[in-house]
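Teaching note: in complex prediction, the entire set of molecules is handled at once rather than each chain in isolation. The prompt given to students was simply: 'Predict the structure of this complex.' The entities are:
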Amino acid sequence: MAARQLSAEEAIAEVKNGATIMVGGFGLVGAPLTLIDALVEHSTATDLTIISNNTGEAGRGLGLLLRQGRIKKAIASFFTSNPEAVEAAMSGAIEYELLPQGTLAEAIRAGGAGIGGFYTPVGARTELAEGHEERVIDGVPHILQSPLHADVSLVYATWGDELGNLRYRRTAQNFNPAMASAGALTIAEVAEIRPVGGFEPEDIHTPHLYVNRLVQSTLSLADVQGPGA
Amino acid sequence: MSDARDVIAARAAQELHSGEVVNLGIGIPNRIPGFLDPDVEIFLHTENGLLGVGPRPAEGEVDLELIDAGKKPVTLMPGAAAFDSASSFAMIRGGHIDTVVLGALEVSETGDIANWKIPGGKALGVGGAMDLVTGARRVIVTMTATTPEGAPKLVPTCTLPLTASGVVKVVITEHAVFRLVDGELVLTELLDGATEETVAAETSARYRAELG
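The expected output is the structure of the full assembly:
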């Protein structure tokens, strides 16, 4: 099915209380800034579980959602870049789960690919192995990681077409392709939306079957952090 | 050289060989490109999704969508490839990164490394540290010999939470190079005019010296 093109406000209205939301981006690069802004400004959905590499920055991006007290749980690899998120996690104000970055990425990929979990050597016999089944494979300890799924995935792509096909740019790709595949409802924010047929088929990174909603990006990195910041 | 970090980075640069795919951690490892022999051509990988990382951009030439894992702007080398996080970490776990150079809080005499957490500290993040030290074919640690308080960082057993066990192959401090040889820690080189006594005083790990 072709993606439905909506305003950011309309698309975000589909986020319900208690939803698990994946949000693309490595820091703010590749983050769906227009959608995050709409989630902060135009939605009241609360008790959210946020799966994202960084949980935003203090007062920016997902950091604003944290200040609003709407995050129940955060799953991330690196909270340190948002001291307020670290404080919220340490004080018990939010629940949190810390995963090695590659395990986080692969768990999201597995979620989208219908894999029931995987054994990884990363984190075995460390503090982060707590609660994970261990299995020694070829003499090397591995731990079982479950897949991650989302009710809603918010992703960003520089280019897309009206069907919802996506193409990412430079290091703004990061978690977006895997998250697009792992959301029951995937909302893609796109800077340049082309007519159908605007790409060579092999140049498409995320085929449109993963994308349910398409939103024109109106907030750029330069808007949020200034040029060259 | 007076700056300890530059002494370490300069020596670490000599460990890298042409053709290698290398991932550099933040801090001291990031200084290594400035000390590479011009004849040595390596391919820098950054775990947020780029192979072929180039130098920092000139002012006015920053591409906001082109950053390294430290979230600092970078440029592209000819032939650079960009990819997503799941692919990037498949490269790392799959043993396709030849060498990772990164900092540490502690390294044990059996090559265990602790570099992601200080209990009670203000940081909460592991990032790609565990993936990199577990997956890279060779792990080189660059660190000052002691903490700012003067405590040895090359220790018998790590006291801080582990990043991974038995993975470190080379440790470079401002005074020495150590190598893990058949599970044994060996002092192989003194740096910047350091003596064996200096190194012994700032190292609590057991090691044997095999100075060439």
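Point out the following to students. Chain B touches chain A at residues 46-50, 59-60, 62-69, 71, 73, 82-86, 88-90, 92-93, 117, 122-131, 134-135, 161-165 (CB under 8 Å). Chain B is about 15% helix and 25% strand.
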